[in-house]
Amino acid sequence: xxxxxxxxxxxxxxxxxxxxxxxxxxxxxxxxxxxxxxxxxxxxxxxxxxxxxxxxxxxxxxxxxxxxxxxxxxxxxxxxxxxxxxxxxxxxxxxxxxxxxxx
Amino acid sequence: xxxxxxxxxxxxxxxxxxxxxxxxxxxxxxxxxxxxxxxxxxxxxxxxxxxxxxxxxxxxxxxxxxxxxxxxxxxxxxxxxxxxxxxxxxxxxxxxxxxxxxxxxxxxxxxxxxxxxxxxxxxxxxxxxxxxxxxxxxxxxxxxxxxxxxx
Lengths: 103, 151
Known about the structure:
In chain A, about 55% of the residues lie in helices and about 20% in strands. By secondary structure, chain A is of the alpha+beta class.
């Protein structure tokens, strides 16, 4: 069980979507994330940079058919941050813990 | 980072919607064409079956099967533009561990039986593993699509 923890880096709406998409997989191509979330390269790059600086993202560049492709994946710290943040969001929706709930 | 959030319930609900949107985006990409897993299952079966062969034939089948698997993984990346590791999905961790353990157990049995002189044991185990692989991954894709799809 992950301890609830609000995370300001993860909380921005687009970063939350990026993290949630990447948490479901091992890694995804930058273009796939961009297309699925319907944002421009520059907007996604900006958010990727913030996540990268926080240590939540690993970025790998690979050349495929003479084109450079960027792959994004969450680090262990990123997965923990997202899990804690989601737990905090769920706690806010259900503020009374089961342990203190009266029968 | 802070721990004292000032979010209201409605803001938290809106944020959870963003989380669902991200997971749904992954769900949309998870599917593979019908031929993908059968081909990978065949390559896996051929790789294990090569233990039943001797000499150059064993090496040729093994190398071809490995090359087919590498090529198919590259095709998977190009088709879906993502890479899935079910170990990262908490709901799938037990199934991943069980499937890996079963695979290693069957592989160990195949090697032991071949060494004990039971000719063709690895070929039988290879076929079983190949079919099991296809069934397992079809189930994984359906399960992940259900897990990640928005409620």
